[in-house]
Amino acid sequence: MTLQTRAAARLSVAPMMDWTDRHCRVFHRLISREALLYTEMVTAPAVIHGDRDRLLGFSPAEHPVALQLGGSDPAELGAATRIAAEWGYDEINLNCGCPSDRVQSGAFGAVLMKSPDLVAECVAEMIAASPVEVTVKCRIGVDEQEPEEILPRFLETVAAAGVRRFTIHARKAWLQGLSPKDNREIPPLDHPLVHRMKAAFPELHLSLNGGIASLAAAEAELAAGLDGVMVGRAAYHEPMNILGAADMRIFGAGAEADPFAVARALLPYIEAHLVAGGRLHQISRHILGLFHGRPGARLWRRVLSEGACREGAGVELVEKALAEVEAAR
Ligand SMILES: Cc1cc2nc3c(=O)[nH]c(=O)nc-3n(C[C@H](O)[C@H](O)[C@H](O)COP(=O)(O)O)c2cc1C
């Protein structure tokens, strides 16, 4: 499974709180059979004490899927990893990149860039508890840190504890004064630094993250020697543009996805969700970008966003939206 997950990591969809939930991942999986999908971050204490069905439950259709954990207590992370592994995740990832206040107060996320020794202790516990590969997602540094100096030390220290695969969000995080959103936009991207890390650590599997806006841009990074590319916002807002041809172009498998077929293939999943007491909106909010940049994109978005919250909204609404897009072709 490690090898399979590594291969899938050539292109991955980033962990995004409130966005890459299980419904979103099922939708993405219908577009790309091959890409690696990450969950939203779940904190280790939540896994240990919380509602596991809600936090960890996922559909077998989502494989290969990686769980991202947040935490900074080695024993807690080990315990959470043990539990998560039982649920059948293909990879467990430690978040060392998230700068939100809530995360800082628990002393984890991007602040861990300042404590590589603690991260090494954390991943050692996780590796001991995990039958699947343990990976790390990090930044290039935080606050006044000098990325060129601290990033190699971070990678070296964490690799010495057994991690062989990292995803690097190629910008700093400012722990004070910037909102999480600003922290994804304002600190400048430094893609060349990630390439230099690959040259310095050829034995590590390194994925680049941050600002990749097209499949062609992802292909260029891979061609330039990186092992993987992780795409966040673009994959969410324009899933067909990033994932639609990924199986063919990145993985040399399968054909280009058709957005109409994707929407139709999602209908039974939506139906099952509704029968189980769920709401249409919980799924349809993730698929608004399906026709991004294509004829009928606005109609699709409008029909779904206006109708999905109504009491009793069901698959007919998605069928209606599809018919309108088809008519607009
Ligand atoms: C809504 C949203 C939620 C996010 N939540 C997480 C998270 O839970 N864990 C994490 O490591 N990064 C999180 N991120 C950061 C992304 O994983 C990614 O690193 C960032 O968006 C940069 O990639 P992009 O430019 O391709 O979007 C989030 C980003 C967004 C937009």
Automatic annotation (TrEMBL):
Chain positions recorded as FMN binding sites: 15-17, 68, 137, 169, 209-211, 232-233
Key words, A-Z: Flavoprotein, FMN, NADP, Nucleotide-binding, Oxidoreductase, RNA-binding, tRNA processing, tRNA-binding
EC number: 1.3.1.91
Cofactor requirements of the protein: FMN
DUS-like FMN-binding domain segment(s): 13-324
Any one Pfam family match given in the protein's UniProt record, by short name: Dus
Reactions this protein catalyses: 5,6-dihydrouridine(20) in tRNA + NAD(+) = uridine(20) in tRNA + NADH + H(+); 5,6-dihydrouridine(20) in tRNA + NADP(+) = uridine(20) in tRNA + NADPH + H(+); 5,6-dihydrouridine(20a) in tRNA + NAD(+) = uridine(20a) in tRNA + NADH + H(+); 5,6-dihydrouridine(20a) in tRNA + NADP(+) = uridine(20a) in tRNA + NADPH + H(+)
GO molecular function, one term: flavin adenine dinucleotide binding
NCBIfam families for this protein: PRK11815.1, yjbN
Family of the protein in this entry: Belongs to the Dus family. DusA subfamily.
Cited PANTHER family: FMN-LINKED OXIDOREDUCTASES SUPERFAMILY PROTEIN
Official protein name in the record: tRNA-dihydrouridine(20/20a) synthase
Species assigned in the record: Rhodobacter xanthinilyticus
Gene name per UniProt: dusA
